[in-house]
Amino acid sequence: MRELAAAPWAAAVRSPPLSWQATFYIARGGSNGFGTSIVLIAAGAILRFAVSVTTTGFNLHSIGLILMIVGVLALVLSIVFWSSWADSVC
Q: What is the pTM (predicted TM-score) of this model?
């Protein structure tokens, strides 16, 4: 069997090795908290301030407010857990 040659740009793309704590944290999906929080806040703000639709049975503005509150809480929790994790690694 013939072996495939490595791409010439592959060496530049490789990242430096991470510590086992950082690898474990990233493998658990811990770095997704910030992005998810921002998406929740943005979606909530759109529903709260930009949508002008009248619906029966539920209020889109209330759902937008709930999404923004959940997004802010998730962001605060992500920051708290990130800082506590960073303190324990250093």
A: 0.61
